[in-house]
Design brief:
By secondary structure, this protein is α/β, with parallel strands linked by helices. The chain contains four helices and eight strands.
């Protein structure tokens, strides 16, 4: 079994896709006007509009209601990502900080309030643990 994607449901798909394209430098692949994917080497971030929820189970997902999941991106240089987000009205939660487990992390909120962690392993143990 492989984890292939995480899907975020949003009331404003264009705004959310724009945020993730700017934050990651990855262009979204749009399947329809209600569904786009940002594909990375490790997994895909799928973004669907609220109209897609009815295709699965009406009312089963609500946009901008997450308070327990953090979307994480492994990046080459978290400080560079921080500089790239500066001045773009990113909702900064924490400045780049080196965590006890050896990752340097930047925590922001996307336009729907979802937590997003951009991180870079900086200690030898973290680099080894996250080697692909």
């Amino acid at each position: 079994m492989d984890l292939v994607s995480i899907r975020v449901i949003t009331g404003d798909i264009a705004r959310l896709v724009d945020f993730y394209e700017r934050a990651t430098g990855v262009r979204a692949a749009w399947s329809t006007e209600d569904f786009a994917e940002l594909r990375t080497n490790g997994a895909t971030l799928a973004i669907g509009s609220t109209s897609t929820v009815a295709l699965f189970a009406p009312g089963s997902a609500r946009p901008a209601a997450n308070s327990s999941v953090i979307i994480e991106f492994l990046v080459d240089d978290v400080d560079r990502v921080h500089l790239g987000l500066a001045g773009r009205n990113a909702d900064l939660v924490t400045e780049p900080t080196t965590m006890p487990w050896g990752n340097r992390s930047l925590l922001v909120r996307d336009p729907d309030g979802n937590l997003v962690n951009f991180f870079t392993p900086v200690t030898p143990a973290a680099v080894e643990r996250l080697a692909r």
